[in-house]
Amino acid sequence: MMVEEENLEAPKEAVIEDESESKKGCCGCLWTPIYWIKMLATEMHWSFVLGVVIVYGISQGLGGALARVGTQYYMKDVQKVQPSEAQVYAGITSLPWIVKPLWGLLTDVLPIFGYRRRPYFILAGCLGVFSMLLLSMHEKLHLVFAVSALTASSAGIAIADVTIDACVAQNSICHPSLASDMQSLCSLCSAIGALIGYSISGIFVHLIGPKGVFGLMTIPAGLLILVGILLNEPQVPDFNYKQVNLKFLDAGKAMWTTLKFPLVWRPCLYMYLSFAVSLNIHEGLFYWYTDSKAGPSFSQETVGFVLSVGPVGSILAAILYQNSLKDYPFQDVLFWAQLLSGLSGMLDLLLVLRLNLKFGIPDFVALVIDEGISRMVGQLKWMPLLVLSSRLCPSGIEGTFFALLMSIDNAGVLSSSWGGGLLLHILKVTRTQFHNLWLAILIRNILRITPLCVIFLVPRGDPDTSFLPAELESKEETAEASEAENIELVALVNSIDAR
To answer: Are 315 and 188 contacting, i.e. CB atoms less than 8 angstroms apart?
Structure first.
């Protein structure tokens, strides 16, 4: 067994040695990311890396950027809704992310035609293709059907996300030392995809309109179908579908048993509160900086370019976390990230009050700085939460439990969106009236700092610390030995069998 474990680590050591030799050259910094990705592909199978690139980079990153800008202009110019209403509708379209545990349970316990993951990628792609075609081809789609189509598209992305998350969570258990690397890969793919998507989003909205952008969104959705076709997954032979109900009950009991431990529910509570109290008022800001009278009246191309700065901040945050912060205790990183989140929000206040002009800073430059810093701080807060979530997942239901933890975060985002819409409504921020927008920003910034009062809920351990109780860890070892068929990829099955 010891020999086999050493053999498992041999590819990683060989890759690292090759990487070290490459670094000796003057272009070593350019080769480092390539060898890093090669190391991850060697350790966890190339199909896992491909799935991460397509789901996070193309579907959520590039496609999410196009969808965000397209949806904002669609609601503002086509459906002509108020900013507070647009904020509520944005929350409705995020509802599929709240029920991520359901998608996780289905992928864990209900294989289709003998496969646990591939059919769900195909289903996700089909949902996205059909809903985007409806939005792009219908001339006068009723608001109810438009929101329903956007929600269906969101459901497709959520299903693909939870399926690839199951791979991430399982790999975090099998390779705990690479947990931060996997989250960095996910974040970098998402950020680079978003950078490209935002850079071209304004141009496409200007040239072909919001509905034309929805038509382009069928391409990322189609690639999800490709992931389902190419994924290297073993087929489950002679699956007994009569046991599905029992497995659902067992998974529910396992999740409830895990959640009852203070080391699990306490950080979950912090995750929800940190997102929920940070009210989302972005739609009000969007309506303001595209308004020709009260705001700077940015064009569609300018909006897309400004938003493309955000992913640059996310990339810098991912690099900073990977190289400097990943070994620090979770509590310390989250404390400073939460504090900086509240302080960075003051940049919005300076912009709306036009104080930047008094200092000679143009609106465009001020908004670029605001977007870059805000996204960087937000990513620094998000990454340790992702790593912590992956370390809280018990084996056997890792996909489902990771989805549960992410749904808690998304429930916080939903609360933030609806709370922000309510705040905009109370302060009477409309399509043309922005007198109280500064007050909404100030209230949001104060609320962003309040989670520091409950920062003690987060454990002080680092990413290499095991947070699960001893009895759950013993169950994990038993599950890994007896239920290797639940693991997503062939390489992972071989790794577990070797143990």
So the answer is: yes
What integer pLDDT is reported at residue 437 of this predicted model? 93
Which band of pLDDT confidence, cut at 50, 70 and 90, is reported for residue 483?
very low
- Cβ contact 375:313 at 8 Å: yes
* Whether the Cβ atoms of residue 418 and residue 98 lie closer than 8 Å to each other: no
Whether residue 132 contacts residue 214, with contact meaning beta carbons closer than 8 Å, is answered with yes
Cα gap 424→351, rounded to integer Å: 18
Mean pLDDT value across residues 106-121? 81
- What is the residue type of 257? T
H/E stretch holding 269 reads helix 262-276
Determine the Cα angle at 9 with ends 6 and 13, to 5°.
Answer: 120
Q: Tokens 């965000």 correspond to what residue?
A: 68
Contact assessment for residue 457 and residue 269, using Cβ atoms and an 8 Å cutoff:
yes
* Cβ count within 10 A of residue 255: 20
- Reduced to 3 states, what is the DSSP secondary structure of residue 112? strand
Alpha-carbon distance values, 482 to 390, 397, 441, 487, 493 (Å): 22, 14, 53, 11, 12
Residue 115's beta-bridge partner residues? Answer: 112
User: In degrees rounded to 5, what are phi and psi of residue 135?
Assistant: -65, -35
Q: Which two tokens stand for residue 428?
A: 């009477």
- State how far the Cα of 472 lies from the Cα of 401, in Å rounded to an integer: 13
Backbone angles phi, psi at 294, to 5 degrees: -80, -30
Q: What is the DSSP letter of 115?
A: B
pTM of the model: 0.73
- How high does pLDDT run on average in the chain? 80
In the CATH scheme, what is the code of domain 45-498?
A: 1.20.1250.20
Burial 52-61 (b: 16+ CB within 10 A, else e): bbbbbbbbbb
